[in-house]
């Protein structure tokens, strides 16, 4: 039996069950993609400081990201853009990103630990959903860091493509600054049109 009550880490030789942690970043923003990461930890990884990405500074997350990627840990990312988010809704887009991330791993996991209330639908690998999993499982915490750092990097690049909104600062989240810029400039191609107040912009425009 696998003990789910403590953080699980398996050797880089992968002689035991392959345990994959999965988490996402970007469900709440008004703009940009949702990103999921899948991670199978190896025993050559120094896990010091690994925790929920939201509790870490950006510098700390970046340092840990490099440490994870330079070890023999297996990891992969799934990225789903704003257009697809609008087409299938954010929950389904999140599941799709998670599905893509796990499928891109070099090895097929024996079990997938998913942060949150829900497992990934239509998936033929054993799963367990763990509420606040990024605080309970090292593999999920590592996945949260990779997802967050990759998405932040994408948003910084998108600031150069779509200047004026401040994406490099707020990463697409609904801050006062972002909403103010949105009202002034209108949505750009990476805004999620199904999200308020982006949706409100189009509604108000049609009334004028």
Outline of the structure:
Helix content is 39%, strand content 14%. It has 208 residues and is of the alpha/beta class.
Explain how this protein is built.
- The structure is a single chain.
- The protein has 208 residues and is an alpha/beta fold.
- The protein has one domain (19-207): Ribonuclease H-like superfamily/Ribonuclease H (Nucleotidyltransferase, domain 5, 2-Layer Sandwich).
- Helix content is 39%, strand content 14%.
- It has seven helices and five strands.
- It has helices at 58-70, 82-88, 90-103, 138-161, 167-170, 176-185, 198-207, and strands at residues 19-25, 34-40, 74-80, 111-115, 127-130.
- Strands 3-2-1-4-5 form a five-stranded mixed beta sheet.
- The protein is globular, with a radius of gyration of 18 Å.
Fold topology:
Elements (H helix, E strand, L loop, with lengths): L18 E7 L8 E7 L17 H13 L3 E7 L1 H7 L1 H14 L7 E5 L11 E4 L7 H24 L5 H4 L5 H10 L12 H10 L1
Parallel strand pairs: 1-4, 4-5
Antiparallel strand pairs: 1-2, 2-3
Helix pairs in contact: 1-4, 2-3
* CATH fold-type name: Nucleotidyltransferase, domain 5
Helix tally equals 7
Rg from Cα: 18 Å
Indicate the proportion of strand residues: 5-15%
The separation of the N and C termini measures 63 Å
Strand order of the largest sheet: 3-2-1-4-5
* Dominant shape: globular
- The CATH superfamily is identified as Ribonuclease H-like superfamily/Ribonuclease H
* Classification by helices and strands: alpha/beta
**What is the overall pLDDT average?**
89
């Amino acid at each position: 039996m696998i003990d789910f009550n403590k953080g699980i880490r398996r050797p880089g030789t992968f002689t035991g069950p392959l345990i994959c942690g999965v988490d996402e970043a970007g469900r709440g923003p008004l703009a940009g993609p949702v990103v999921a990461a899948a991670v199978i930890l190896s025993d050559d990884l120094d896990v010091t400081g690994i925790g929920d990405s939201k509790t870490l500074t950006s510098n700390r997350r970046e340092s840990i990201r490099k440490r994870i990627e330079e070890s023999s840990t297996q990891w992969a990312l799934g990225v789903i853009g704003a257009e697809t988010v609008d087409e299938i809704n954010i929950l389904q887009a999140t599941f799709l990103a998670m599905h893509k991330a796990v499928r891109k791993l070099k090895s097929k996991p024996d079990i997938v630990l998913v942060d949150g209330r829900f497992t990934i639908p239509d998936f033929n690998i054993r799963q367990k959903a763990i509420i606040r999993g990024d605080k309970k499982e090292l593999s999920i915490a590592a996945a949260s860091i990779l997802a967050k750092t990759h998405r932040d990097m994408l948003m910084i690049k998108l600031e150069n493509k779509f200047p004026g909104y401040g994406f490099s600062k707020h990463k697409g989240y609904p801050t006062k600054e972002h909403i103010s810029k949105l009202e002034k400039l209108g949505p750009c191609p990476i805004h999620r049109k199904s999200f308020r107040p982006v949706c409100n912009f189009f509604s108000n425009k049609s009334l004028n």
